[in-house]
């Protein structure tokens, strides 16, 4: 753990919203880089939460309160991660696939894309294929992004691509996928146009693909 962020890290582990917010503010006031506060303080803590869950030391309620603290800290950090003078570079519909309720990673990807000038249609969590289809048909999405955190919900990425194909819309959009269990090999296997392992790589991926759809 990075010593600069021990208070923040521990506050997220304990799910303490007030201390998380205060620690983010202290780090910002000290001039620490927002990207580092996010990666070395906050995401590092969520990784540890996952490890504790795997070890059987944490259960779902602990994961849930840690996630709440993370979201509260992210809200404070958001304006510092976004740059203000960017024009719309395209429209991205993003959602966590059906059956999956994890949204922190998806929210981060949306935040980074927004910061890079993309318009975001955030479809939320547990998103059915029909909702992704609507985002293309009536929402005007150029790119559709799926997130999944569970090995059991990853197959819904494939189902959603098949539904988009069946609706005759596959050649209208680029589809990208991501989330902890997702890999480039899986993206290739299900016919997605791209995969990204993290939020900042998602930005360069979308920029490249927008070049391809523009
Ligand atoms: Co869940 N959970 N969870 N959980 N949870 C994991 C994912 C798990 C790995 C924990 C573990 O066992 N170590 C495990 C999944 C195992 C597996 O399938 N391989 C797990 C499990 C089992 C479950 C439940 C089944 C537990 C249960 O009920 N018994 C249950 C499922 C509920 C459901 O979805 N139907 C469940 C529930 C929950 C909570 C609701 C309590 C909570 C989520 C709250 C919320 O999201 N609002 C939760 C949490 C917090 C986690 C962990 C601890 C943290 C996830 C997180 O937010 N990480 C997680 C353990 C872990 O990930 N190590 C775990 C921080 C976030 C920034 O990272 O989401 O990976 P991540 O996003 C990254 C990249 O993946 C990527 O960019 C992001 C930023 O760089 N990325 C994309 C993500 N989406 C992308 C999309 C892109 C591109 C990149 O383009 C489209």
Summarize the structure in words.
The protein is α/β, with parallel strands linked by helices and 214 residues long. The protein has two domains: 81 residues, Methionine synthase domain (Methyltransferase, Methionine Synthase (B12-binding Domains), Chain A, domain 1, Orthogonal Bundle), CATH 1.10.1240; 123 residues, Rossmann fold (3-Layer(aba) Sandwich). It contains nine helices and five strands. It has a five-stranded parallel beta sheet, with helices on both faces. Helix 3 runs antiparallel to helix 4 and helix 6 crosses helix 7. The longest helix is centred in the first third of the chain and has 22 residues. It is globular. The mean pLDDT is 93. Bound molecules: CO-5-methoxybenzimidazolylcobamide. CO-5-methoxybenzimidazolylcobamide binds next to helix 3, helix 4, helix 5, strand 3 and strand 4.
